[in-house]
Design goal:
This protein is mostly helical and about 270 residues long. It contains ten helices and no strands. Helix 2 runs antiparallel to helix 3. It is elongated and about 75 Å long. It starts with a helix and ends in a 5-residue tail after the last helix.
C-alpha cells in the first residue's frame, strides 16, 4: 500500500473481487433473460450498460461473467505456477543431468508463444472451460519453472539445506519443506502478474470459440458474439473488453507493488 501502483492495483482488484463474490447478488436481472423488444439498447435507467442482440442486460452478464473469467484464470495460474515451482525447485536441488535434460526441454517449449501453445493443447483436448484452464496452466509451467529455478539455485547453497541433507532427509522433503517455502515471494509476484495474462488468454480462447461456450456470460465470449453487431450497438463489445482490460491492469499493478514490497534489497 506504500506504492501508488500497489494502491491502485489493490483498488481495482478489490472491485473485481466484489464482482466475483457478489456479482450474482448485485445483478439487476438474470443474465439469460431475453427481451426481444429491447435489443441493441444503449445505457439507460433500466439497463445501465445497455442490452445485447437478445435484449439481455449487459451489466448482469458482466457481473455474472466475472466468476467464470477471473476464477478460472486464477485456477489456471495457480495450477501452472505450483507445478512449475515444484519442477524448478527440484531441478535446482538435483542438478546434473536431470537439470540439464529438463531445462533444455523447457527452453524448447518456451520457444512456442503461450497463446499458440494453449491453442494447440485446446485443439487436442477439445473445446470447453476446463480444457481451456488446463491448456493455460500447461502453457504457464515452463516460464514458472525457469523463474523458480533461478531463485532456488541460490537457496540450494544455503546452510539449512545442507543441514537437512546431512540429517539424511529425503530429496522430496528437502524440496517441499526446506526450499519451496523460501521461493514463495518471487512465485507469488510472478503468479500475480500471470493472472493478468491468464485472464487475457482465457478471454482469447473463448473469443475464438475454444473456451466457454454459449450461452455462458464469459467476457471473451461476450466480445466474440458482439463483434457482428458493433454497427448496431458498440456498447456490446465495449463493456466486456473494458472488463478484461481492467482485470489485466489491476493484477499487473498489484504485481508491481508486491515486487517492491517483497524485494529483500528494499
Amino acid at each position: 500500500m506504500r506504492s501508488p501502483q500497489g494502491k491502485l492495483g489493490m483498488l481495482i482488484i478489490g472491485i473485481v473481487m466484489v464482482m466475483v463474490l457478489f456479482g450474482p447478488y448485485l445483478a439487476p436481472h438474470s443474465p439469460d433473460d431475453m427481451a426481444p423488444l429491447s435489443r441493441y439498447k444503449g445505457p439507460s435507467a433500466a439497463n445501465w450498460l445497455g442490452t445485447d442482440q437478445y435484449g439481455r442486460d449487459l451489466l448482469s452478464r458482466i457481473l455474472y461473467g466475472a466468476r467464470s473469467t477471473v476464477v478460472l484464470a486464477f485456477m489456471a495460474t495457480a495450477i501452472g505456477s505450483l507445478i512449475g515451482a515444484f519442477i524448478g525447485t527440484l531441478c535446482a536441488f538435483l542438478g546434473g543431468r536431470f537439470d540439464e535434460i529438463v531445462m533444455r526441454t523447457i527452453d524448447a517449449v518456451m520457444a512456442i508463444p503461450s497463446l499458440l501453445f494453449a491453442l494447440l493443447i485446446v485443439n487436442l483436448m477439445g473445446k470447453g472451460e476446463i480444457n481451456a484452464v488446463l491448456a493455460i496452466a500447461v502453457a504457464f509451467v515452463p516460464s514458472m519453472t525457469r523463474v523458480t529455478r533461478s531463485v532456488a539455485l541460490a537457496i540450494r547453497k544455503q546452510d539449512f539445506v545442507s543441514a537437512a541433507i546431512a540429517r539424511g532427509e529425503s530429496s522430496l522433503y528437502v524440496v517441499l519443506c526446506e526450499m519451496l517455502p523460501n521461493v514463495v515471494a518471487p512465485v507469488v509476484v510472478e503468479m500475480t502478474i500471470r493472472v493478468a495474462f491468464a485472464v487475457m488468454l482465457f478471454a482469447t480462447l473463448s473469443f475464438l470459440g475454444l473456451g466457454a461456450q454459449p450461452p455462458a456470460s464469459e467476457w471473451g465470449l461476450m466480445a466474440a458474439e458482439a463483434r457482428k453487431f458493433m454497427h448496431l450497438s458498440p456498447w456490446m463489445i465495449l463493456w466486456p473488453s473494458a472488463a478484461v482490460a481492467m482485470v489485466a491492469i489491476g493484477f499487473n499493478l498489484l504485481g508491481d507493488g508486491l515486487r517492491d514490497a517483497l524485494n529483500p534489497k528494499t
